[in-house]
């Protein structure tokens, strides 16, 4: 894997975790849940998008 691709992958994982923590905190106001959801990152973000009213369309 090239260095640029590795950096992009790490940035994507970091962004997913940051979004997951922000969503979790806004919903639960719990550091424990924010840590758990941050660990799952993009999986939690995608799950959240599919399970909320309006789904991916907003």
Structure description:
Helix 1 runs antiparallel to helix 2 and helix 1 (3-28) crosses helix 3 (42-51). The protein is flat, with a radius of gyration of 13 Å. With 58 residues, the protein is mainly alpha-helical. The mean pLDDT is 88. The protein contains three helices and no strands.
Question: What is the strand and helix layout of this fold?
Answer:
Elements: H1 3-28, H2 31-40, H3 42-51
Describe the structure using short key phrases:
58 residues, mainly alpha, flat
Number of helices: 3
Distance between the termini: 35 Å
Tell me the major beta sheet.
Answer: none
Compute the average pLDDT.
88
Strand and helix order: HHH
Rg, rounded, reads 13 Å
Q: What sort of overall outline do the alpha carbons produce when their principal axes are compared?
A: flat
Which percent range describes the beta-strand content? Answer: under 5%
Quantity of strands, as a count: 0
What class, by secondary structure content? mainly alpha
What is the share of helical residues? over 70%
Uncertain stretches:
none
Question: What's the gist of this structure?
Answer:
The protein has helices spanning 3-28, 31-40, 42-51. By secondary structure, the protein is mostly helical.
């Amino acid at each position: 894997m090239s260095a640029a691709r590795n950096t992009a992958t790490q940035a994507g994982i970091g962004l997913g975790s940051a979004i997951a923590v922000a969503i979790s905190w806004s919903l639960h106001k719990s550091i424990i849940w924010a840590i758990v959801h941050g660990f799952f990152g993009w999986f939690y973000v995608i799950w959240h998008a599919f399970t909320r009213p309006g789904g991916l369309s907003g």
